[in-house]
Every structure is written in structure tokens, then in C-alpha cells.
Amino acid sequence: MVEIRGRKNLHRLAKFHLAPWGVWSRPDRSPQKSLAPSGVAQPLFGATRPHKRHFAIWVGMFDNTNTPAEFTQELTDGINAVIQLLRSMKIGSMKIAGPKSGSWYRNLVYVYTQVHIRRLLTFLDAGRAEFLAGRYLITDMCARAIYETVAVYCDFAAQLGPLLDADEVDKIEDFLRTRMFATRLPDFIAEDKSVSATNILTQIDKMTKVSPTARKAYDHLSDIVHPNALGSLVYFTTLNAEDGTMTFPDETSSQERARDSFAASAVMLLHFHMALQELEPRLKKLSEGSPAP
Known about the structure:
The protein is mostly helical. It is built from ten helices and two strands; from the N terminus they run αααααααααββα.
């Protein structure tokens, strides 16, 4: 795994508190300046890909045109850096055959990590694309999925860490099996109750220790993505109070809320990155002196 520079800064950034719609409580923040060269047009979610030789923050997914006004430049840069890191961590294959050893367990953790990295990148890219296409409700769905994916992985890392420290190999194996094959499907659970997935709300609630308003933001997004008032009547209509006319405009305030919620969900990537960094030295210690499978 690759370590990002300025880890302490990411820890500090991740401790800011999110408001329900993902707006940062930093009213004293001065207007941020874009790092893009003057005269360069900036798409809503930045350029499609970074320069092939280096990564310039201004071509990242987020900038001052698609984040809440309360976002600092430092925070936006941190999010873009983590996204670029995750893209660089994608691999094509991982060998998991061979004798059970420290390296074998390490590789299983890497497999679990790899699939969650790909989930996050899928939701980030899809949320961006759907916003640009004017399908803001799908962007909200992607934002909600990012909260879930980060919460699941952080819970995984928090529980795996002590097992790695204690070098409890049998417990590590059982834990990895139950997490890698976790399910909510009754037929599968009937065959093996140990693979019953933890309720996602339990894992979201755990995230409130590091992001106090994570549950509130998640609940708002859940109410939107389900066919309740926020995700239907409120989302797609505008009422003229004077003549009582209900209109269905293509552009509503839901656009801005979706934009802010999506940017706020990306802040959770900082916690995902920190979980990776907490696991890495433990996995290295586990596999030391053990031949790679």
C-alpha cells in the first residue's frame, strides 16, 4: 500500500464535523482559490484524468466549483490526493493459492481491500457522471453507497487490527472468512450463520466516533434514495404558493444538495485511507519471515 504525504494533515482534516447535507461548519473560511491556470475552463467535476506524468490537484475530481463554500482548499486537495492514491492502488490480480502463512493471510486482506477500493472508485465515477448527466438522484445514491463502503471497511480494519496484534491466526482466518463472504440473504445464512452481515446502521454509527454527523447525513441520503417525500415530491417539484401551481422543473434545489452531499461523502475517503495506514504495518509484521504464497 502507498502512503500519502501529510498523513497528520489528513487526520486533522477528517476530524471536522459534517452538517446533515454535508456542509462544513467553517463559516470563517475565506473564499478558496482554484489552482487551475487562469483562463482554463473547469468542468463541474474536473478533468477526466490526471496528466500521465504527474498529478496536478486542479485536474482532480473536486475543486471550488463543485464543493460546498465551506470546504477549504486544503480539504479539497486532500480528497483529490486520496482518490488519486486509490486509483494507483488498483491491481490486476492477487495470488491466494498456497500454504496458510502470514503472507497468505496478508493477501486475503489485500483482496478484501482491493474490492472495496474498486467499489469506492465505481461510486465516485458514477456519481460524477450521473451529476453531469442531470440525474442527481443517482448521485445521491452513489453518495450513500460511499458512506456504507467506508463504514464497512473501517469496521473491518478496527476489528482485524487487534487480531493481527495478538497474532491469533485461527481467529484471523475465521474473521476474514465471515467478512469476505458476508451476506444478508436468508438462504445463505441458513447454511452458515457466521456469514450473516453486520447491520449497516451499526457500522455507520461506529463512524460517528470520528465523524459525528455521519449517521445524520446517511439518514438524510437514505430518505432521499427511498421513495419517500424527500426523494420524490420534494425532489422533483416546485410549488408556487401564490397560485397553487405544482411544477416539475428539470433544475431544482436538489441539484445543489446532491452536489454537496456527494462532495461530503468523498470526505469519508480520508477515514478509509487512515484505516489502510493503520493496517499496513501490522500486515507487514504478520508476513515477515513468511514466504509469499
